[in-house]
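hey so i finally got around to running the thing on that chain from the lab meeting. sorry it took forever, my laptop kept dying and i had to restart like 3 times. anyway pasting the input first so we r on the same page abt which one it is
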Amino acid sequence: MKYVYRIVNALLAAAIFPAVLFLDFLLVRASTSLADVGLEETITLKRIIDIFTGHDTLSSLIQSSGDFSWPEAFAPINSRLIACVVFFALALIAALFIIFWSIFSNKRIPVLSASIAGLVSVIVMNACFNSAAREIMSGTINIVQAFATGWIGSIVGSIVNIDTLVFGGFQNGMIILFVCLIIWTGAFYLVELGEPKEEKPEPKKK
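ok and heres what got predicted. didnt touch it at all, straight out
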């Protein structure tokens, strides 16, 4: 039974990585002020990586634009975006820790602690991103003009509105898996508490 516990731990933690890569990473809904036309688009982290590494049809747009530089317009939300990345990394580190710990040890406190830490990290990550995204959706920061410089960027930015900018759903997958780890470990604690303790035999008197 101990091996089953450790195997399930490792599998649940390992499932976090494909969830991050292949579930929708970002959801964007945009509209224009010229016509009643809207656009909804989702993109996975896997595709974002492929775009920047030259393995996607959109890679040519990135390469033709020259060296990429972080927009100065994002200065008011940089701290929140950095916090988002930090907590995202902490959640992945927690998952990685659970995998390796489950391979080498049967102790449950570290797994429970890492699962709670991972869950909290995902929740904080999501809150930081939503806070930053509100600045973009409100129009305080024009994301089109930030990335598309020049007169074309000014024109397009003035007619395109970002109505929705949120994580696409990968964060929900991470939350579910961390919660499953907490419940799985907690169930074993409850089972152990219900088991009668073995009484140690009294030492024989000489």
